[in-house]
Design a protein that fits this description.
This protein is of the alpha+beta class. It has a single domain, classed as Nuclear Transport Factor 2, Chain: A (Roll). It is built from three helices and six strands; from the N terminus they run H-E-E-H-E-E-E-E-H. It has a six-stranded mixed beta sheet. Strand 3 and strand 4 form a beta hairpin. The model has no long low-confidence stretch (mean pLDDT 90). It comes from Chitinophaga lutea.
Length: 126
Amino acid sequence: MDNTASTKQLLDTYYKGFARKEGWESVIADDFKFRGGDMTNVSPIVGKPAYLSVIERFSRAFTAMRVKEMIVEGENAYVTGNYDFRFPDGTAVNGDVAEIWKAKNGKLDSLTIFFDTLTFDRHTPK
């Protein structure tokens, strides 16, 4: 299988499980690198357990998600994920998240995301 097909298969497995909030963890590398939510911090969160912790918190905010667009070239991919969010204050919104992926050695190796952090800040208790 070429790199593009392998990366697409990893992402399909990830997003199918991610939408259900289960069954996506198997495609994440042990030394996974995640950047997102704070553009002033260029250092990634490293390690699968650290990413699982981030997603545990994030999963409380979204009620549904779908892949809006996916572009895969070799071990690199871009995905626009579309999410329905319900915040602790009861506010419901729909929004897109830009997700830039890298695969390596048959696993998803890193993810950088870009989204509207101000909306999260406004609707999350301090």
